[in-house]
Specification:
- The complex is a heterodimer of chains A (409) and B (290).
- Chain A has 409 residues and is of the alpha/beta class.
- Chain A is built from 13 helices and 12 strands.
- Chain A has 2 domains: 179 residues, Response regulator (Rossmann fold), CATH 3.40.50; 151 residues, Rossmann fold (3-Layer(aba) Sandwich).
- In chain A, helix 9 links the parallel strand 8 and strand 9.
- Chain B has 290 residues and is mostly helical.
- Chain B has one domain.
- In chain B, a hairpin with a 2-residue loop joins strand 1 and strand 2.
- Classes of the chains: A alpha/beta (409), B mainly alpha (290).
- At the A-B interface, strand 7, helix 8 and helix 9 of A face helix 1 and helix 10 of B.
Chain lengths: 409, 290
């Protein structure tokens, strides 16, 4: 066995110790992992969307690691229940979570926000549109998701831009929406925002329907009697299926069917139920920019972690969940610390240029909202959600006016 | 709304109402004879919908045709259920019967949730998207076939009660239980057959409804409520009343949707219920209590 000369010079030892003490916090941060509690409704009423977000979280791990971020995710089910969400948030923090991400539903998010405020633990919201979340003076939350008002404003603006760019003349529109909380709030937003936007067409009728109804045949008959050029809809997948069936049966064919910002039209359930009739529905929503390198990386990882699911259908929920994790990981890297106040300060100072969803850099205003998020027009083409507007994110040209129902099967 | 479109709405409402009526008929038969209110009625309808869904998945059997074997299977289930579970409760207080059947409904819904999950299910029939046109009036093909099937089942049921000795015996037991026992009729057996016939009706109606709409286990309570609304409007225990109640609710909901707002459908049917309860508590075709 050979013995190395382990004699140290005093100056070298002092220099080493000094370097150790004075080393930037960033080095220590990279040795440690940021523990993020990801709270999502993976079972219960919101399970479908919660699982979609969860698949995004699973795909995020590799992408974040490849970007040099050191994070550990704690996957937690809120069971579509605000009380469970609150309890699970407490538990996650007790078990060492430095930061929380979630929670898809506005009520659950508010319940978690109260816990985070008390425990001085940052909450990065992935999906939750209720405006009041960021209007209550919470210091430990930011939201990388548009409010309902932003969704409708962006969605309505895109209706005009898209139809003009496609050369489709729209003179009249009808608005059909569910009479649940989401649908009614969208109606309120449309009623408030539509007159301010100087839209080039007239909104001739707004029809509310019961999402629990067995069918929407009467609603479609009413639409036939109005015969609008454009049908604007706010639905979920189940209602969209019933609506499509009744529109096909009654041969109701407006020039375009566009949602100014609602889910349902890009669910696998919708595609499976109505097949080719799902094509040419358009929805204006923030969407994963298919031309972004980070989106492509997330999609590649998604294919590995969720091979039975299509990224094109999940990218709304998965994209926003990834970005929430990215915000936390990026702040941790910059702050070099995992304590709540320091981490939150870094989160609020975020400016992330390269990301997944459409819009400018991820940055937050004083209230904690990211106002740079924009929407894209996404059209179902060949049973796949496809970005058709704006040009910088589009991968195909819009198919407008909408082709006839006949001959699709 | 133009007159042809309004007529179209009324026809669609009438066709749907016939299927609702068949479902409610089952509830009325059970109560009319056994005097037990089946609080798990909507749950049995949803169970039949899942049976139709499974048969469609396995054999590509049209739910409207599948209504025949499903009705037969539900008759057997109903017969056995009455004999084994419900019969001991027939003479017990109503709150005990209520708890029994509500418990049964919870078991059915949760079993369906465990097996099939909460997702909405549907069957894709070749004529799901087709319609008949009469001038400018368009009528859904699936709704026409569903209504015809409901009418056929109802006709068979009426023939059973009118022309078979068992049917006549059941009517006798319903009219005068003591008299039926005195002349030597096996009342327990008649109760079991009635329960079986009631479940056969709801089985057929559920299978037909599978062709008309999507379903989840959580649809069950609203169907129970719908069946109750119909039989109370038509008259609890009256077979004609159940059918007429179904038609009335279907047409009233459709007319209200066309003339006012579609989201007012439920309000109209419950409004109708309140009016009938206030003016004619026994229902439109029910017999007043002596």
């Amino acid at each position: 066995m050979s013995h190395k000369n382990l004699t140290f010079h005093r100056r070298a030892v002092l220099a080493g110790a000094g370097a150790l003490i004075a080393s930037p916090a960033i080095v220590r941060a990279q040795e440690k992992k940021l523990k993020i509690g990801v709270l999502l409704p993976r079972s219960g009423f919101f399970a479908q969307a919660g699982q979609s977000c969860h698949r995004g979280a699973l795909a995020s791990v590799k992408v974040l690691a490849d970007l040099g971020y050191n994070v550990e995710l704690m996957h937690i089910d809120t069971e579509s229940n605000a009380d469970v969400a609150r309890t699970q948030a407490e538990k996650a923090i007790n078990e060492g979570a430095h930061c929380l991400v979630g929670a898809f539903e506005s009520g659950h998010t508010l319940a978690i926000a109260q816990v985070c405020e008390q425990r001085q633990t940052p909450l990065v919201i992935n999906v939750a549109a209720a405006p009041n979340i960021t209007q209550q003076g919470y210091q430990y939350l930011v939201r990388n998701f548009p409010t309902g008002g932003m969704l409708v404003t962006n969605g309505l603006k895109l209706v005009t831009e898209l139809t003009r760019s496609a050369g489709v003349d729209i003179k009249t529109a009808a608005f059909l929406h569910a009479n649940d909380t989401f649908g009614t709030s969208m109606r309120t937003a449309v009623d408030a925002i539509f007159p301010k936007l100087d839209m080039p067409f007239k909104l001739v009728e707004s029809i509310a329907y019961d999402p629990k109804a067995q069918d929407l045949s009467v609603e479609v008959t009413k639409l036939r009697s109005i015969n609008p050029d454009l049908l604007m809809i706010v639905t979920r997948a189940g209602d969209a299926i019933k609506l499509t069936r009744d529109m096909v049966r009654q041969k109701f064919e407006p020039k375009a069917i566009i949602s100014p910002g609602s889910p349902g039209l890009y669910d696998e359930e919708f595609f499976k139920a109505v097949g080719p009739y799902a094509n040419y529905f358009i929805y204006n929503l923030p969407w994963a920019n298919p031309k972004s390198a980070m989106t492509q990386a997330l999609e590649a990882s998604f294919k590995q972690t969720s091979p039975d699911n299509r990224f094109a259908l999940d990218c709304f929920n998965a994209g926003f969940t990834f970005e929430a994790l990215l915000v936390a990981a990026d702040a941790f890297k910059r702050a070099g610390a995992d304590d709540g106040p320091t981490l939150m300060k870094a989160i609020k100072a975020s400016s992330i240029k390269d990301h997944v969803m459409t819009g400018g850099p991820i940055a937050f205003n004083d209230k904690g909202d990211n106002l740079n998020i924009t929407s894209a027009s996404v059209e179902n083409i060949a049973l796949t959600p496809t970005v058709v507007y704006p040009a910088e994110a589009a991968t195909a040209k819009p198919v407008l006016p909408m082709p006839s129902w006949q001959g699709r099967k | 709304m133009s007159l042809p479109l309004f007529v179209e709405v009324l026809i669609q409402g009438m066709l749907t109402g016939l299927v609702y009526g068949l479902m409610a008929l089952g509830l009325s038969v059970i109560f009319g004879v056994v005097r037990v209110v089946n609080f798990a009625h909507g749950e049995f309808a949803v169970l039949a919908m899942y049976a139709a869904f499974v048969l469609f998945g396995l054999f590509h059997l049209d739910p409207i045709i599948a209504s025949i074997p499903i009705a037969a299977a539900f008759f057997v289930i109903g017969y056995l259920l009455q004999r084994a579970v419900v019969q001991p409760f027939v003479t017990r207080p109503q709150h005990e019967q209520f708890i029994l059947l509500v418990g049964l409904s919870i078991v059915i819904v949760n079993a369906l949730l465990l097996i099939f999950g909460p997702e909405s299910r549907h069957v894709d029939l070749p004529y799901s998207f087709d319609s008949f046109s009469i001038g400018s009036i368009l009528i859904d093909e699936v709704r026409v076939y569903g209504a015809l099937a409901a009418l056929a089942v109802t006709a068979v049921l009426f023939a059973f009660f009118r022309f078979t000795s068992t049917g006549v015996a059941i009517r006798a037991a319903a009219d005068n239980l003591v008299g039926a026992a005195v002349v030597g009729l096996d009342v327990k057996r008649l109760y079991a057959i009635s329960f079986g016939v009631g479940l056969a009706c709801v089985g057929a109606a559920g299978a037909i409804m599978m062709a008309l709409t999507d379903m989840t286990p959580m649809l069950a309570p609203s169907l129970t409520l719908l069946a109750f609304t119909i039989v109370i409007v038509g008259g609890l225990g009256s077979m004609v009343g159940a059918l007429a109640g179904g038609l009335l609710i279907g047409v009233a909901e459709a007319a209200a949707s066309a003339l006012a707002s579609p989201s007012m459908k439920s309000m109209v049917s419950f409004g109708l219920l309140i009016v009938v309860l206030a003016l004619r508590p026994q229902g439109l075709f029910g017999k007043a209590e002596a």
